[in-house]
Amino acid sequence: MKDDTHVVTIDRHIIDQERLQPEATGAFSSILTDIALAGKIISHKVNMAGLMDVLGRTGDTNVQGERVEKLDVFAQEVIYRAMDHTGHLCCMVSEEHPEPIPIPEKFPAGPYVLVFDPLDGSSNIDVNVSIGTIFAIYRKVSNEERGTEADCLQAGRKQLGAGYVVYGSSTMLVYTTGSGVHGFTLDPSIGEFILSHPNIRIPDPPARYYSVNEAYYSRWSPGQKRFVDRLRGTNGASGPGFSSRYIGSLVSDFHRTLLKGGIFMYPSDERNPSGKLRLLYEASPLAWIAEEAGGRASDGRRDILDLVPEELHQRTPFYIGSTELVSLAEEYLSEDG
Ligand code: P6P
Fold it and tell me: Domain 209-336 is of which CATH architecture?
């Protein structure tokens, strides 16, 4: 039985991972450590949100007279302020900002780019559904001291680190730097992320779960319809008996898929020919995590990690999870021509 002295905090794990990279300078590790700090701060605010709403039913301010901010704006500011002064980044890209976010001139710039969705699914917070932060780290490719859009528009295969924080029944941080996928659970009593899920692998055989918003069925391509019919055994298809699981919060649906297996899909459809989810700071980070855990991610035809974004907030159809199911989806979609 391990006693409490054997806990591995995320800070220790990051240092251990850094030692695997002989040329590491510690800057990359510092970025991950700062993201973990931001995750703790956001977790506290998210967990208090319901209480504040009850206490603060006076419009835009709560009973303490504090301005009740939108949580995703709060999360954006927390991450920005944790990162802007460190000298490790040349710029940032956030779902909340149309253009790359520059490092203030008063602070030094560094060799890395951080892309992130500060709080995905924040519309779910009012009903206490888990939400999440998604991030990825790239190395600058331009010769500019301060980052350019070219430094941000890189394929997922160029990521140096990727991860997410899921604010749920517990807060977990899951990340990879290319040496496996590792999950940490926040112990609020000591304010530390503790290694709880080392070397996560998508189970094989996977749980028989498929995850998609079936309200859009009528708008899907024929191949997409036939694939979901196959999974659920409808419209004449003799399905292998899958169950549907759809939370409507990307990080939560992905986290379940990572730990249990199955497939999560956000297809393109007649109204959204490129789908809804963003390539740079949603699909690519999760795709690398899935691949490092033995799974796959595709846009229905190509590996997500091979796609080079042409603009920062580019959307992509998204299929992620157990390799066999993602590949089966591609087979059905290939019939669409
Ligand atoms: P739909 C949440 O709004 C979000 O951006 C993702 O977290 C989630 O996967 C998706 O949208 C849900 O979209 O169209 O099913 O409501």
Answer: 3-Layer(aba) Sandwich (3.40)
